[in-house]
Design a protein that fits this description.
Helix 2 (31-39) packs parallel to helix 11 and helix 9 runs parallel beside helix 10. The two termini are 34 Å apart. This protein is of the alpha/beta class. The protein is built from 11 helices and 11 strands. It has helices spanning 7-12, 31-39, 56-60, 77-89, 105-110, 130-138, 156-164, 183-188, 199-208, 224-232, 249-261, and strands at 17-20, 42-45, 49-53, 71-74, 99-102, 122-124, 145-151, 168-179, 193-196, 218-222, 239-241. GO terms for molecular function: uroporphyrinogen-III synthase activity.
């Protein structure tokens, strides 16, 4: 399998089409649409993965008593959605004294959809990193019993931290990540660039197209684990985000397109 194209061609060929491996943004004000307009680039959106929730029956097999925990850790909106879905299906009433530790402020604010938001009960990291979340949790580690609702691809570094500091905790698998069928999208189009946001997106690519050849296709990745998955798959990583100068993928793409397309 040929996975890399000549470097010289990559530096001179302009990007005219990009496949974003996420759902199409619902708002017209998305920075992605601004990028498409500014650089006259075709942007297609197609999620490479989807999330499937575990049933209450399957959750019960984990023998986790949710009311027995005093704090819940959330690292995504999916974990929030499926935690409260399971609680509703099992008719579990979450204590008003429960604390919530969220990896980003956006996820913390998303909790307002499910609870009466109180600042002294909701905490989040300063910069959206796992490190900043753990710094906040560290102040409470001796007094809380943590529940870490997650998918089958949970953040291992958080669980390692909980183990290291001998915290009382349990991980609860509430949903799983599965591959979408992207064969038709890939067969009908030739993209100059594909952007991934999860290691499972990279896995989905090869599940759909085991003989995928990168050649001159640029690859972008958001997040360190996604970047590692791209390189572990033997692909050439052309764009890595976030970085200090580009904290989001749209910002990183804008810088990259400015360089490559000479706009």
């Amino acid at each position: 399998m040929i996975k890399g194209g000549p470097k010289k061609d990559l530096q001179t060929k302009q990007i005219q089409s990009i496949l974003i491996s996420q759902p199409k943004p619902e708002t017209e004000k998305s920075p992605y649409f601004e990028l498409a307009k500014k650089f006259n680039v075709k942007l297609d959106f197609h999620p490479f993965i989807r999330v499937e929730g575990l049933s209450a029956k399957d959750f019960r097999k984990q023998k986790i008593d949710i009311p027995n925990f005093t704090a819940v850790i959330f690292t995504s909106r999916n974990s929030v959605d499926h935690f409260f879905r399971i609680c509703e299906e099992m008719k579990i009433k979450v204590s008003q004294d429960c604390k919530y530790f969220c990896i980003t402020e956006a996820i913390a604010l998303y909790l307002q959809k499910f609870i009466l938001y109180r600042k002294r009960k909701v905490f989040y990291g300063a910069d959206g990193s796992t490190k900043s979340l753990l710094e906040v949790m560290n102040k409470h580690r001796d007094n809380e019993k943590f529940l870490f609702p997650s998918s089958d691809s949970q953040k291992k570094d958080i669980e390692e931290w909980l183990k290291t500091y001998k915290c009382e905790y349990a991980t609860a698998t509430l949903y799983k990540t599965v591959s979408n069928d992207v064969k038709a999208v890939m067969a009908e189009n030739v993209y100059d660039m594909i952007v991934f946001f999860s290691p499972y997106g990279v896995k989905s690519l090869f599940e759909n197209m085991p003989e995928f050849e990168q050649n001159g296709t640029r690859i972008g990745a958001f997040g360190p684990t996604t970047s590692a998955a791209v390189e572990d798959a033997g692909l050439r990583l052309d764009l890595k985000a976030p970085v200090p100068q580009a904290p989001s993928m749209p910002a990183a793409l804008e810088q990259y397109l400015t360089l490559i397309n000479k706009k």
